[in-house]
């Protein structure tokens, strides 16, 4: 296995066009996450954490499909098996972003008293950086191209 210098990995992360695509897809995902959070929590009456986890997982599926077809379409094998592997990796990677976003959500709502949709938006923003970095490096391996 060939070792890729840190400098090359960092350079691959700051590709402006791919970063902007990831932001656009993230905006769609955040909209899905936020809509489902409000629907599950305020309308269906589910607990805040359950609502957050369900909305986030559905939004991750939506974002994976869009990222696979658009943002990272030129990276990786296009076989069904490779896509399933990337989906599994993506879900694992996004777990870090989900933990980050959920901790921020709970901290801001329970400690600071911030309105939960606003706290969720802040959490999504913080989790974005975790997700972008590890999705780029682990799921689609942009530094290998």
TrEMBL record:
Source organism superkingdom: Archaea
Pfam family, one: GtrA_DPMS_TM
Keyword Ubl conjugation: no
One GO BP annotation of this record: polysaccharide biosynthetic process
Primary subcellular site in the record, as a coarse category: membrane
Bilayer topology annotation: Multi-pass membrane protein
GO cellular component terms listed in the entry, alphabetical order: plasma membrane
Keywords attached to this entry: Membrane, Transmembrane, Transmembrane helix
Residues that span the membrane, as ranges: 21-40, 46-66, 87-108, 114-134
Transmembrane recorded as keyword: yes
Subcellular location per the Swiss-Prot or TrEMBL entry: Membrane
Sequence ranges assigned to domain GtrA/DPMS transmembrane in this UniProt record: 21-140
Matches recorded under InterPro entries: GtrA_CellWall_Glycosyl, GtrA_DPMS_TM
Membership in a protein family: Belongs to the GtrA family.
Protein known as: GtrA-like flippase
